[in-house]
Design a protein that fits this description.
27% strand, 5-stranded antiparallel beta sheet
Length: 92
């Protein structure tokens, strides 16, 4: 899956704009219900100002994921799903 930086920013802005129209309580409820469900571009964290990241499973681990830059696919960090299991949205 290849996305340009412009496409990712547009998708993130549209997603964030949809939540603003729901109000803070609606956004919190939506964010709390979205768990990791496979590789893709997710908005993280589920509070504050979420940013898009390419989230992939760590090879050989079912409970850890890698956060990557969506444009370059460069590895940014890895962490356990028990720490970061909730996302603000999924773009792909």
């Amino acid at each position: 899956m290849q996305f340009t930086r412009r496409e990712m920013i547009s998708a993130a802005i549209l997603s964030a704009g949809a939540w603003v129209s729901q109000g803070a309580a609606g956004a919190a409820k939506t964010a709390a219900s979205l768990a990791y469900d496979g590789p893709g571009i997710y908005l993280y964290p589920n509070w504050g100002e979420p940013r898009p990241y390419l989230v992939m499973p760590v090879h050989g681990s079912e409970q850890a994921v890698e956060f990557r830059d969506p444009a370059s696919k460069a590895l940014l960090w890895s962490q356990s799903l028990s720490i970061c299991g909730e996302f603000a949205g999924k773009l792909s």
